[in-house]
Amino acid sequence: xxxxxxxxxxxxxxxxxxxxxxxxxxxxxxxxxxxxxxxxxxxxxxxxxxxxxxxxxxxxxxxxxxxxxxxxxxxxxxxxxxxxxxxxxxxxxxxxxxxxxxxxxxxxxxxxxxxxxxxxxxxxxxxxxxxxxxxxxxxxxxxxxxxxxxxx
Length: 152
Hints:
This protein has helices at residues 6-22, 27-37, 46-62, 69-92, 98-116, 121-151. The model is unreliable at 147-152 (pLDDT under 50). With 152 residues, it is an all-alpha fold. It is globular.
């Protein structure tokens, strides 16, 4: 009989619900999952998260609802290329933080994949807004967890 791994279960549950979070924008699921998985990212430094979050926020500013299609294509391309940046970050992670960095990469990779599933740029833009909300929630709960562990 396999031993239950609550950490792995939290990641798997978030991955299973990723379509609801990214495609449907289910805020309750976003908050619940980010709260559960933030401790599993505690060894990912705030600067590592900012290295991905900063470009995502810049993309958000550029990819407005009324953005011309060429601008939408350019921003969407940047989003897809973040997947390779995440892969690089995992490769560079120390042994101590590798599992947490892999969790971070797995979650964002799946979220980006959900954005890619949009049939057109308008749909992808809506999914991207939900992706940003998911990422913002993840950053907030990561910070909360990080502050708790530094006080102990």
